Amino acid sequence: MYKILFKQDLTFNTHLFKVAAPNVAKKAQPGQFVVVRIDERGERIPLTIADWDEDEGSVTIVFMEVGTTTARLALLEAGDSIADFVGPLGLPAHIENFGTVVCVAGGVGAAPIAPIARALKKEGNKIFSILGARSKDLLFWEDELRSVSDQLIVTTDDGSYGRKGVVTEPLKELLESGDKVDRVIAIGPSIMMKFCAKTTEPFGVKTIVSLNPIMVDGTGMCGCCRVSVGGVTKFTCVDGPDFDEHQVDWDLLFARQRIYLDEEKCSFERWQSQVSERS
Ligand SMILES: Cc1cc2nc3c(=O)[nH]c(=O)nc-3n(C[C@H](O)[C@H](O)[C@H](O)COP(=O)(O)OP(=O)(O)OC[C@H]3O[C@@H](n4cnc5c(N)ncnc54)[C@H](O)[C@@H]3O)c2cc1C
Ligand code: FES
Q: What is the number of the ligand 2 atom nearest to the C-alpha of 215?
């Protein structure tokens, strides 16, 4: 069992757990993820490693409540334990001195992008970060991203904090400004990543996204996380999760993400009725 050492509510529906997992902490690298299962009957879900501390033997995950498993996870507290915490999985993010890198984070994407931005900064890159959310109450880790960035721009769709609008607007302005941008990294909802791709494509700037298809085993065995990149089939869990954004078949990704919508809705309704019966 993997004990939750610390819990923090980052927003009303986004939570941080620091989990005792020394073997994962020993090998973790930016961009990798773990597969979590709450108990022996639970669903396996992938969550990105947001931070780790080898000395403490701890790994930090940040998750947003979107369905049954993440809602169940949110009910756990420090001192509780998780049955499975498998990782680190996936290929680490490519870290080198590219020059100037723009890191674009949407919503919960702030957590996975932070260790990548930190590692890129350490490697000597100039980091421009753009952090966006629908509204102020969904924003978190502004300070964490600021501390690893030369410049940070915050946007909210409704203008409740920072600049009003979506992340692609300051991204386009940066690309148009004439400052050389060597790489863009975008992590967030798939639709946001797709629009970042559309924004950077005319400028010919290499753009990397962290894809989030449905995963089951996370080790290349089930084929569930199949995506098409440059016309070639890839398994996100072992060939990614990072891919060249301009090569991704977004329509296939969106279609595959929706495969189990009816089952997910049914599962969530069942879970909600069980919770309300108990209370
Ligand atoms: C490599 C990777 C890293 C991720 N990192 C994070 C993270 O750091 N923080 C975070 O909040 N979310 C992350 N996700 C998404 C997270 O796995 C899903 O939100 C979670 O599985 C939803 O489960 P649920 O039962 O709560 O919701 P459900 O109601 O079951 O599903 C809601 C939606 O979540 C997605 N989803 C459902 N099951 C899975 C699954 N087994 N694998 C992947 N996606 C699924 C689907 O798009 C689905 O429509 C990551 C996904 C991937 C692939
Ligand atoms: S999750 Fe099964 S092959 Fe990737």
A: 1
CA–centroid distance for 271 within its chain: 25
Supply the residue whose CA is at minimum distance from atom 2 of ligand 2. Answer: 222
pTM, whole model, 2 decimals?
0.93
Report the DSSP beta bridge partners of residue 62: 16
Q: Residue 43 carries which DSSP code? A: P
20 Cβ closer than 6 Å to some ligand 1 atom: no
Q: Which ligand is nearest to the CA of 87?
A: 1
| Residues 139 and 116 sit within 8 Å (Cβ to Cβ) | no
Query: Could you tell me if 192 and 211 are in contact, meaning their C-beta atoms sit under 8 angstroms apart?
Result: no
CA of 151 to the centre of ligand 2 (A): 37
Q: Is 86 in the pocket of ligand 2 (CB under 6 A)?
A: no
Structure tokens at 176: 């148009």
* 132 and 154 Cβ atoms separated by less than 8 Å: yes
Cα dihedral: 250, 253, 259, 261 (round 10)? -70
Q: Which ligand is nearest to the CA of 108?
A: 1
Residue 276 has pLDDT above 80, yes or no: no
Q: How confident is the model at residue 178, as a pLDDT?
A: 81
Structure tokens at 211: 């894809």
CB of 220 shorter than 6 A to ligand 2: yes
Buried b (16+ CB within 10 A) or exposed e, 204-220: ebebbbbbbbbbbebee
Which of 148-152, 166-170, 209-213 has the weakest average pLDDT?
Answer: 209-213
d(CA 166, CA 157): 6
